[in-house]
Automatic annotation (TrEMBL):
Entry protein name: Branched-chain-amino-acid aminotransferase
Pathway: Amino-acid biosynthesis; L-isoleucine biosynthesis; L-isoleucine from 2-oxobutanoate: step 4/4; Amino-acid biosynthesis; L-leucine biosynthesis; L-leucine from 3-methyl-2-oxobutanoate: step 4/4; Amino-acid biosynthesis; L-valine biosynthesis; L-valine from pyruvate: step 4/4
Needed cofactors: pyridoxal 5'-phosphate
Keywords: Amino-acid biosynthesis, Aminotransferase, Branched-chain amino acid biosynthesis, Pyridoxal phosphate, Transferase
Keyword RNA-binding among UniProt keywords: no
Enzyme class, first EC level, given as a word: transferase
């Protein structure tokens, strides 16, 4: 991703893509001092841009640093960057990180840097292919407790176990992994939230030690519009035996059906399909 044409917004200005480098002594690289966002543009418009930028600022605040720009400046840069790169269907990645002035755990005086990159992201799978459902492995890594890590921040350091889980799953031929939490309850996938369907109701884990995804909240609203009951609660792994359908939600994942999680099988059923189409219509502005 580093050697190509295009524009990246970095520290307040638009710079050529391949010039956007950080020093090797950057705190973010050594100690995980970074937060980021991930959002999608559909037909030239970024879905829930304001919510994503608000979360970026909250994440930074939770890690104790102040972004030296306003939320409006970040929003404007995201939109302008799409134009500058001639993109309409794209992924947009803002990232904020602690720089390289102090070399050690403490980094109070380090410059806070910010960058935004956008790249093309057309719908990769046809609806027919996604309709088959993804296969998930069950990770050995667990989401940490809220007093172990800043679990509600979209902080880069929290993704170490996500990458390890995803790599282990892919090595075994799975698409992704389901992670349990520190109590052994069902939590989420490596970059997406999870929902289940049983007897016409939706069941989803309470997001008390992982991100309450913007897509998760959107899908809960869409379900309510369809008079589908949504139950947020602790879900134990054994319960997956009795669930009929399962799907993931995320800005990148959108609404993606699951066919397997470890030993458990699911059908790609009507409720999943309906929410998939509702979400698609909403993000594309047809709703
Ligand atoms: N959990 C994790 C670990 C994620 O990385 C993401 C993607 N940001 C989500 C959940 C879903 O969040 P959202 O719907 O806001 O993209």
């Amino acid at each position: 991703y580093d050697d190509r044409d295009g524009w990246i917004w970095m520290d307040g200005e638009y710079r050529p893509w391949r010039d956007c480098t950080a020093h090797v002594l950057t705190h973010a690289l050594h100690y995980g001092g970074a937060v980021f966002e991930g959002q999608r543009a559909y037909n030239g418009k970024i879905f829930k841009l304001k919510e994503h930028t608000e979360r970026l600022f909250k994440s930074a605040e939770m890690l104790g640093y102040k972004i030296p720009y306003t939320q409006d400046q970040i929003n404007d840069a995201c939109m302008e960057l799409l134009d500058k790169n001639n993109l309409v269907d794209a992924y947009c990645r803002p990232v904020v990180w602690r720089g390289s002035e102090m070399m050690g755990v403490a980094a109070q005086n380090n410059t806070i840097h910010a960058a935004i990159a956008v790249w093309e992201w057309p719908s990769y799978f046809s609806p027919e292919a996604r309709m088959k459902g993804l296969r998930l492995d069950i990770s050995k890594w667990r989401r940490p407790a809220a007093d172990t890590a800043p679990v509600h921040a979209k902080a880069s350091g929290l993704y170490m176990i996500c990458t390890m889980s995803k790599h282990a799953a892919e090595a075994k031929g799975f698409d992704d992994a389901l992670m349990y939490d520190y109590r052994g309850q069902v939590a989420e996938a490596t970059g997406a939230n999870i929902f289940f369907v049983k007897d016409g109701d939706l069941h989803t884990p309470t997001p008390d030690c992982f991100l309450n995804g913007i897509t998760r909240q959107t899908v809960i609203e869409l379900a309510k519009k369809r008079q589908i009951k949504v139950i947020e609660r602790a879900i134990m792994p054994e319960e997956m035996e009795g669930f009929e359908q399962a799907f993931l939600t995320g800005s990148a994942a959108e609404v993606t059906p699951l066919s397997e999680i470890g030993p458990y099988n699911f059908e790609v059923g009507d409720i999943t399909k309906a929410l998939m189409l509702d979400y698609d219509a909403l993000v594309k502005g047809e709703a």
